[in-house]
């Protein structure tokens, strides 16, 4: 069935605004990526070398490839979430209703997609950080480097599984907090001013929420961390290095550099996704003026009376 001319106009306007929001999210990726690289290489005693190494890392081929993957993730999230936005808030009347909404097929699909994209984002952060987090396999600390000395790198596994956990937790919060609800501001402002006013709040919220997500993830990994480790070890034929403490123990989890990188990776993941959400809301809820009457008949579909009646 062919849609009304006014409906086609509104759909076209919304599509262009959504595309503009996603494009701006991609354009902001190099800045957020550089901030992540800069903070992941903290060296207070050598600030000049710290800044130079961070700048040089931005021109690395691994960084360029990670940026391409991150851009694809942002485009996928921005396009995928457009199907879930609504102008009517959904407020469960009880905890049972809230629990039932979590297992709704569409929301389950949303959670699975975000968990998978969280793994990809976490893989990009391991590439950007480098060092002991870079690869799935690593030589033993006691053996010489070689094929016979390659073991499972649980630090890499910890960050990848953490990406899935952060992505799933983001999806749960997305619907529980009604982030798919579009509220139109009573006082219209320029898009730049709205973005500037909300940017610091988004950064702060991402950092704090990453801390709580990491706390929950560490508790979960402490009890069930052996499951993904054993599965990946069996599927890739990589044995665990006995000289390195397992991360599902207190001595393994109480590793400040690992916890810092995991928290920073989670903050980076949440920040890029929240910025995409924020830009989408700013662009979509911007005022659009319909002319009451146009002198030319062929442009009558853009007039306010025609749009309202369609």
TrEMBL record:
Transmembrane segments: 21-44, 64-87, 108-135, 155-176, 258-280
Subcellular location: Nucleus membrane; Nucleus, Nuclear pore complex
One matching Pfam family: Ndc1_Nup
Membrane topology category: Multi-pass membrane protein
BP-aspect Gene Ontology terms: mRNA transport; nuclear pore organization; protein transport
Keyword Protein transport attributed: yes
Keywords: Membrane, mRNA transport, Nuclear pore complex, Nucleus, Protein transport, Translocation, Transmembrane, Transmembrane helix, Transport
GO cellular component: nuclear membrane; nuclear pore transmembrane ring
Predominant subcellular localization, coarse grouping: nucleus
MF GO annotations: protein-macromolecule adaptor activity
InterPro entries the UniProt entry points to: Nucleoporin_prot_Ndc1/Nup
Entry's family note: Belongs to the NDC1 family.
Function: Component of the nuclear pore complex (NPC), which plays a key role in de novo assembly and insertion of NPC in the nuclear envelope. Required for NPC and nuclear envelope assembly, possibly by forming a link between the nuclear envelope membrane and soluble nucleoporins, thereby anchoring the NPC in the membrane.
Name of the featured protein: Nucleoporin NDC1
The species this protein was found in: Callorhinchus milii (Ghost shark)
